[in-house]
Amino acid sequence: MEMWFTEKQTENVGITCKTGKTIHMEKTEYQDLALIDTLQFGKMLVLDGTVQTTEKDEFIYHEMITHVPLFTHPNPKKVLVIGGGDGGTIREILKHPSVEKAVLVEIDNKVVEVSKKYLPTISCSLDDSRVSVLIEDGIKYVQNNKNEFDVIMVDSTDPVGPAVGLFAVDFYQAIYQALKEDGLFVAQTESPFYNNSLISNVYRDIQSVFPITQLYLCSIPTYPSGLWSFTMGSKKYHPLTVEQSNKAEIDTKYYTKEIHKSAFSLPKFVEDLLK
Amino acid sequence: MEMWFTEKQTENVGITCKTGKTIHMEKTEYQDLALIDTLQFGKMLVLDGTVQTTEKDEFIYHEMITHVPLFTHPNPKKVLVIGGGDGGTIREILKHPSVEKAVLVEIDNKVVEVSKKYLPTISCSLDDSRVSVLIEDGIKYVQNNKNEFDVIMVDSTDPVGPAVGLFAVDFYQAIYQALKEDGLFVAQTESPFYNNSLISNVYRDIQSVFPITQLYLCSIPTYPSGLWSFTMGSKKYHPLTVEQSNKAEIDTKYYTKEIHKSAFSLPKFVEDLLK
Catalytic center at which residues (chains A, B) (predicted)? Predict the structure, then answer.
């Protein structure tokens, strides 16, 4: 007998993965949460039927949402993650010796609990002394903290359900306020193949708030289309004129100094989305 | 009623596409050939159950297998394509005004026939006066032509069935002989996520024959993992020191001068495969 989990990534295309057992399944206050064992990608966290992270390919997303902004800022000390309850982004943040404090604000405590229990290679840094995990609404948290953070990562689910408010110009304005005067932020902004109008709209919204706005890409096999985008808004530092030679070497499997630059080199059809 | 076509890309993961009608299906002398209508990607050519090309995303593969080598060579006049019976690579080659002659050697005439009939936006250049379409074994053709071509593209199916011999060091040696003294070639070399030992082996084999060997990447949603590799072997010209300013501007949707360079910037785990 073969079991396959299929995510419909759009109405008309999906990814299908051969599975072992379903390790955990529950309806939380915010979403349907499942933790399943897949033969290709190891353990997989699924929220509302959508792949969030897997043991085998999580390194790509977590490295790219973290190291691009943290190597753009010359001296990031205080960092905020909105969402990201699996802990992978926090794990990468703590590789930067300049970071003194990392705050994770996750709305759904069950994501943190299940990740701590079943995804130890991803959640391994959530109990570090430099980390505060807050279970609350990221939008309210950002609104209530001004001039606090060097870097903010919006490590959200797709713009349906609990994450809708994280793809809105009001939120980007609150992010701007929560950052220090030379701060910057990055948000995951979906697939250039399947979410092109979202990418255009988010880019324009961030551009209306931040003087420097740049989109970059990476390849993630379990995410729709395999090509994923992040959009950075920055008050002062430009990601392509960063001086990396004085930075610590960190251990990565995807990110390199060359990838830092080439990730901003966009296929023509993606460039065209941002015009 | 919903119909879905699923390709098992490995034993444990697949892509599934909502389909309209099956336009054509036959068992050719070499493989199972199907032409199906998909809602996400338009018409899709499938050989032995594996997606070859679709109307919506074919531009990526065809631009990247073509423009990277043709912009690396300073003056490509005579070009050979092994495989590629759908005609997309030929269409891109003819965008280069220096090209006087393009030879396509496809083993399966049914691929050419079906593409001409049902995929006119891809096969549109196969009847151009600069093009010769030969229905024969690409390996024998390469063995029988010495010192003939400026650039060769190996636009093959996966290394199972009719294409096995196109992933072998003997074939790369014959390619070397078929190229002029400053010639170069490129082969599609599968996914760095799912075919990592193949990529390592092919890279080493090409490196044993050519003084310059370089791997580059692009993102193709319908190919396994979404990340696809090409390996270039070159006798003289290096793809990263190419002077593009004297080249004609060509109309593309993926390739740009910046992508030409950034495509060679590899994620760390891919760099590690080539060591």
Answer: 155 (proton acceptor)
